[in-house]
Amino acid sequence: MAIFSNIFKNQSPWGSGPTRGDNNGSGARREPPNLDELIGNLQRLINKFLPGGKSGGSKPIVLGLLILLVIWGLSGLYRVLPDEQGVVLRFGKFVNTTQPGLNYHFPFPIERVLKPKVTKVNRIDVGFRGASDSGRSSGIGEVPEESLMLTGDENIVDINYSVFWVIKDAGKFLFNIQSPVETVKAASETAMREVIAKSEIQSILTEGRSNIEVEVQEITQNILDEYGSGIQITQVQTQKADPPSQVIDAFRDVQAARADRERSKNEAEAYANDVIPRARGDAEKILQEAEAYKKEVVAAAEGEASRFLAIYNEYKNAKQVTQERMYLETMEKVLADIDKVIIDKNSGQGVVPYLPLPELKKPKGDS
Prior knowledge:
With about 375 residues, the chain is α+β, with helices and mostly antiparallel strands.
C-alpha cells in the first residue's frame, strides 16, 4: 500500500526522483520522472495486486483494463449548474433528480444525466406570433383561429396574449408530457376561452383585463398540475383585446355613441342636481310665506272678532254711551281730513271766527 501512504504524505506515487536546488535559493524541488521510469513504476505497482507477483504476457492487458476501469468510474462525476436540475436515468428509466453542485451517478451505459435549464423563463404567444421571446412586443402575424373568442354577452373579441412559464420539476417535465410547448399553449387557450365565455365584452376591453389574466393563470396551472407536467406558470400577459377587424369601425361608433349617452346623462344629472334643490328651496319658501300669511290673517281676524265682541258686550251694558262714543269715533275718522267751520247755535252770534291753524302747517309754496 505504498502508493496510498505516499499520497497522504504529499509524495509522488512513483517514488522519489532526483532533486535540484531552486533558482531563488528556497530549497530543493523534485525533478519529474522520465517516461520509462513512470511505466516501470506503474508495472511494479500493478504487479503487487496481481497473482503471481511477476508480470507476464497478460499483465499489460490487465493493467490497461484497470486504468480503463478507473477512468470509467470517474466518468460518473458530474456537475449541475445553479440554473439547472439533474435528472438521473438508469437504463433509460427516470430514477431521481439532483440539485445544483457536484454529484455522482453510475457511469454510462448504466446511468446518464440530463440537465435542463429550470430558471429560464419560456414564453408562448397565443393569437399572434411575436417578434421577440421576452417583454411586450407587437404581433407580426395574427392567428385568427386562436385569437377570436365568443364572450358571455354573445359578442366576439379578438384577444392576443402571452404565457410565461418555467420548469418546476425536471423529472415530470421530461417524462410526463411529450410536447411541453404545445401542452402549455393548449391549456392556456382552453383556460382563456373559458374565462372569456363568462365575461362581457365591455369588461374585457376595459378594466377587466387584470382579473382575466389572473383567472387564466390559475386555471392553466390547475390543468398542468393534473397532467403532472412539472411546469409552473409565472404570468399571463394580455397583449391586445379588440373587436374583430371586420366590425371594429362599427364597434367604435357604438362606443362613441355610448360615450355621448353617458356624457349627456351626466350633464342631465348635473342640471337636475342644480335645479331640483333650488326648486325645492323656493317651494319651501312659498309654503313658509303662505303659512305666515295664514297665521297673520287668522290672528288679525281673531283680533277684530275679539274687539267686536268686547264692544258688543260694552254696548249691551251701556247702549246710550256706547252709541255716542261710536258716533264720535266715526265722525272723528270722517271729518279728520276736511276743512271745518264751527257754528255755535246757542250763542246767537252765527259763525265764530277761528284761527286757521291747519293753514299755517301747509308749505309756503302751496296755494
